[in-house]
Amino acid sequence: MFGNRPAQTAPPAPRKPLKRPATSTPGKSPEAPAAKAVKPSRAKQDEFNQLKSKLHRRLVEQLDLSAMEGDDESIRASVSEIVTRLAEQEESLLSYNERKRLVAEVLDETFGLGPLEVLLADEDISDILINGPQQIYVEKGGKLSLTDVQFRDDAHLMHAIDKIVSSVGRRCDEVSPMVDARLKDGSRVNAVIPPLAIDGPSMSIRRFGADPITWEDYIGFSSCTEEMRTFLDGCVVGGLNILIVGGTGSGKTTLLNNLSSFIPEDERIVTIEDAAELRLRQPHVVRMESRPANIEGKGAIGIRELLINSLRMRPDRIVVGECRGAETLDMLQAMNTGHDGSLTTIHANSTRDAVQRVETMVMMAGFDLPTRAIRQQFASAIHLIVQAQRLTGGARKITTITEVQGMEGEIITMQDIFKFEAMGASSEGKIHGQFVSTGLRPGFLERLRSHGSRMSDTLFERRVLSVDKVG
Ligand SMILES: Nc1ncnc2c1ncn2[C@@H]1O[C@H](COP(=O)(O)OP(=O)(O)OP(=O)(O)O)[C@@H](O)[C@H]1O
Ligand SMILES: [Mg+2]
Fold it and tell me: How far is the CA of 204 from the centre of ligand 2 (A)?
């Protein structure tokens, strides 16, 4: 079941002791309230927008960007001077701050993504969700809120979409109205435009935080406990095949990244993703990204092909960003044929649901396998399932860590080793509860120990590990 992985010769590098941050880390505070801008009157806003368009037009008339010399920063400084001068020539009654804002917004239009720049500059924002030009939501600290930021009209929003997708060599138009792209900082972008999007162009941006969430944050945010972290560390080092399950935006990729951080430095890691989101620190990593079809509908290379290819690359570990199609069966087969220590995620709302999803995905991919055979593949491939969940109120937690034990008849047997038990909700609807060690000892413990793990038995004594602070 575990292949012939040699025992770890070099022990994993010692890690810094984990400290609970006294205050939440800036840039990824889970509780930070969404900023509220003061809303100017409609007439004032219209006047401001007209002035902005006018300045932008005059700037374009006066300027030949290609003829400007220097690095980006010095060009931006020169353009800023020109816009400031143009703004001063306007007779409109603008306050000092309004003038400053005007110049900043014209520069955002010229060099960036217009109105989105203010949102992109806020590191606490994790998602930007644009439903047509006038409705932009953000997620901040786990909570969704409507912003005051707007595009002028569909054309203005389309201009920003075009700027993004053309920078990655794609097009978004009637022929390909649904596009994936990325911002320069790595943020994941999906745009859908009419006729598919009924109420105007829409775009979803998953921010790629400058400051990724680490194990210290997991513990500081009560997303898991020290004991769970220690256990997961041992499981990854010991070469277990781990499946992360969770719903949309539940924190699967973040968890995959953090689990991958436990892979010993002397192993060769191959990562396969649709959009490169993982940020592994190990020196020996081969990163691969799937490719969508070109404008003629040709040249697509999916996760499955990359996975099959990766098997010829002598990987010690295969990390697949997400299994959502035919690659699922290949992944299980790879895990079953000696590629231990592989990690992947799947979109499912519970551990049991994950099994069903895998069955559906394998069947939908056209493989003619009886359910029992698929379950058998699953049960012998996956050793551990870790569930990520976004709870009501916005907190993200590791809610179960489950051992897959095997099959009994038609049923896959599993046991929870650690879990989060919800106990109630605050007046704002935020769920609170406790992490517990269930008292069950995983069957693979001896195996982990034979791989050098020093996991103590006390980790598995039935007890409450931590209780959320209420309020
Ligand atoms: N434990 C956590 N505490 C606070 N925020 C978190 C935590 N885990 C993830 N996040 C944040 O939640 C957002 C979603 O995380 P992530 O991209 O990992 O989710 P996902 O399940 O992979 O989403 P998708 O289904 O869209 O692929 C990110 O902004 C991430 O920074
Ligand atoms: Mg993800």
Answer: 13
